[in-house]
Write a structure and sequence with these properties.
Layout (H helix, E strand, L loop, with lengths): L4 E3 L2 E4 L4 E6 L2 H6 L2 E6 L5 E7 L6 E3 L7 E6 L4 E6 L8 E7 L1 H10 L7 E2 L3 E6 L1
Parallel strand pairs: 2-11
Antiparallel strand pairs: 1-3, 3-8, 4-5, 4-9, 5-6, 7-8, 9-10, 9-11
Length: 128
């Protein structure tokens, strides 16, 4: 059963914008930092952004800083990713998952960490 549900993907031209949504059950939304990840053809998984469930602090991949913004709506149990100035390199399937904070700590320490909660993804295609 899918615990998180992404939506908002589509086809846009270079320089365009999209807003992705991730709907999560309350126990996930309240207890975990939720992040956006993407998988492009021929490439490995890349973390795009992460937002804390406690203080609301955010992190961004260098490749999207200044262009993407992550946010949370507590009333709707939804995490958003506003994507502006899109490039063909942004083309990928975008997933939301938890716990991205735990994943950060594991990566720094060189420890394998598997996040338990994922959605099925939404496809973003940016034409040149």
């Amino acid at each position: 059963e899918v615990q998180l549900v992404e939506s908002g993907g589509g086809l846009v031209q270079t320089g365009g914008s999209l807003r992705l949504s991730c709907a999560a059950p309350g126990f996930i939304f309240d207890d975990y930092a939720i992040g956006w990840f993407r998988q492009a053809p021929g490439k490995g998984r890349e973390e795009v952004s992460c937002i804390s469930n406690s203080d609301g602090s955010t992190d961004y991949a260098d490749s999207v800083k200044g262009r993407f913004t992550i946010s949370r709506d507590n009333a709707k149990n939804t995490v958003y990713l506003q994507m502006n100035s899109l490039k063909p390199e942004d083309t990928a399937v975008y997933y939301c998952a938890a716990d991205c904070r735990g994943s950060h700590i594991a990566a720094i320490r060189g420890i394998h960490y598997v996040m338990d909660f994922w959605g099925k993804g939404t496809l973003v295609t940016v034409s040149s």
